[in-house]
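My current task is to audit a protein record that another person submitted. Alongside the sequence sits a line of tokens, each denoting a local backbone shape. Please read both lines and tell me whether the tokens look consistent with the sequence. Do not assume that whoever made the record got everything right. Thanks in advance; the entry in question is below.
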Amino acid sequence: MPIPVIRAETFYLPPAREPEDAWADTPAAELVFRWMENRMQRRVLPPATAVDETYFARINQNRWIADCVCGSAQVISPADPRYGCTECGYGWCALVFPEDVAAVEVEMLAIEKPHLRNWWNPTDPANPVQPTEPPPPFDPDPKIAPKELA
């Protein structure tokens, strides 16, 4: 059975002493903050506001991740396309996922060894393998903003 691409909701899980669904009510982008609090045994607060920044989602060794401007990275999820950094505290950034996430994940499953599964958005300027034919320029839709905190 192939190992699926890992998302935040399958990576950041409660400790074994808690029920498996203990964090089920936590949005996927906020799971990392609960996980860090548990591991570090100190309060790690999510950002209070959104910032005008957009990050590209990518697959690194079979995990959806986003890289922060501070150099940190964390596992993310297309189910909640926003990113707040647990290292520098940078506010909620919008994430750019591929239009067809499922198709990209299926493409990754064709690679037998999960540690070799890597994917970059063709329009990501950080993509180390630039397409031979330039993709259309990325134009974020200003009507789509990161989810506001409840």
